[in-house]
Fold:
Amino acid sequence: MMTTTLRVSPTTAVIPVHAVWGAAAGLAGGIGFGIWMSVSRPVADTAMITMVAGLLGSTNAFLGWLIHLAIALFAGIGFGVLLGEFARQLVPAVVLGLVYGAAWWTVGALWIMPANMGMPVFEWNDVTSSSFGGHLVFGVLTGLAYFCIAQVMRGQTGSARR
Structure:
């Protein structure tokens, strides 16, 4: 299998195109998930996005968005690198996105985030159940965005067909 790359500028190294497309797709999914977390208030009328800010000891929603989008960018790159080759058709992109979102929920929302905040890990409650829905939204939107980007870029350049 041949890897297609993108040269960002004459002085930078080449970047695998799946990583670039994944980054953009992850941000699209992250925006959808961030909106979900901004309106979801599973505990004491507290927006979930402020809980993300708690990773840095804050309750500031803007900081929560910055942290969340950084994580979404990272997760999107991972999606592109690991699954991008298989996400070039609509149904596989959506299914892989759902599975990827559920995997991130398991690792991030059930384990890493509660462990960093001194809360019980792998616990099902109002927060984790709402977070599960949000992670599925992230996955679907990331998969769909990746699929759309791949379709558009295939039409733009012959080098992006691989």
